Amino acid sequence: MDSVDSLVVEQEHLPNGKKNEYLIVFLLSMVSYLATVDSMLLMPLGNIIMKTFSVSPVQSTMVVSVYSLVAGVAGFLSASIMDRFDRKLLLIWTFVGFIAGTFLCGFAYDFHMLVIYRGFTGIFGGIIGGVCIAIVSDLIPYQRRATAMSIVSLSFAVAAITGVPFGLFLAKQFNIQMPFIVLGAVSVFSLLAVIVWIPSIKGHLSHRTPVVNPLTALKNIFSDHNQVMALWLAFLLVFSHYVVIQFIVPYMVNNVGFDEDLVPIMYGIGGVCTIISTPFIGRFSDKRGNFPSFVVLVILSFIPIIISTHINKVSMILATIVCAFFFILAAGRMIPAYTLMSAATTPEKRGGFMSMRSACMELGTGIASIASGFIVSQGPGGTIENFHYVGYVSVLTGIVAIWVASRVKVVTTL
Predict the structure, then answer these.
(1) Nearest to residue 151, comparing CAs of 294, 8, 237, 24?
(2) Predicted structure pTM score
(3) pLDDT in tens, 90-108
(4) Is 200 left (phi over 0), alpha (psi -120 to 50) or beta?
């Protein structure tokens, strides 16, 4: 029996068939949502971080970049073993480590301790995303995988509309630690749901290759041109997004004049619009093709990127509309990109590749955060200077991402 037949048989034995498939996608979306909230939480809190710990803009990026950089390293190191375990068990143990790190951040009252705990959380946060996408890719055929990926991608939008605004509210009403305590508590209940309802995912184990050392496993991935192109695509996309988002809230507040108390509303409106648009984008990508859809969405995303990094003293309504389109297209272009990446390798190698993909995305986030911190500066009255250069960098990166995506070939339709 080949790998395709093995995984199909595993899928057919799921209780309640396709209904259970939807439940699994929902639970994986919830896990992705919590991980996304955790990784995004400190980005819109830039002003609060700088005020609470009396640090500069460059220093404030450390709590974001350390998480992403450590997560990237963890993803690279774990890639060689990702396909040697039941994916459910792998998800459970990484989720447990993630929850422990999140709770530790909730009790970090010193800047340096917060940086250390964020790094610890990143060890596990860098693996969770890859495991979730690998499970979805194992269970959902390529022909309708973009729709499933659109549901998982909703974690970004839902995080923006609920998690991030609520985190901002808790940080302003209590302290910067409170959002992590609440997030950790919610994650515990989600962990129990994963244990109860996610089935064992073992189809890939019957076709695994002999054990090799981690360096050899990494060499095998990087010797595959198609996988390398897909990894570059993952890196470039998140870099293009997070190089802007790192300082978009301080810029909107200090330069555009956006009321800081209205920032959660801005995220909420952007999140609602993204939730509405994401399913349509998923179905459009399935129907029209993932690469053509990706090209259109990336090019359209340049419009809100340039406007949001150049506007100055405009109405809050206009600023909110621009940010809404920024969120819609940032999340939308990831849907066909995720689907292309999921088909860049075979099922028995998918876990390791997805771990590497998550590593590249985390490294892209961390490097983008550092790069943005070095590009911008804080001017008189706390204004953010040179932010328009960040927009140019984002657009240039998006153009390169289109070329890289054109080099990614579909090698499996499972």
Answers:
(1) 24
(2) 0.71
(3) 899 999 999 999 999 999 8
(4) beta
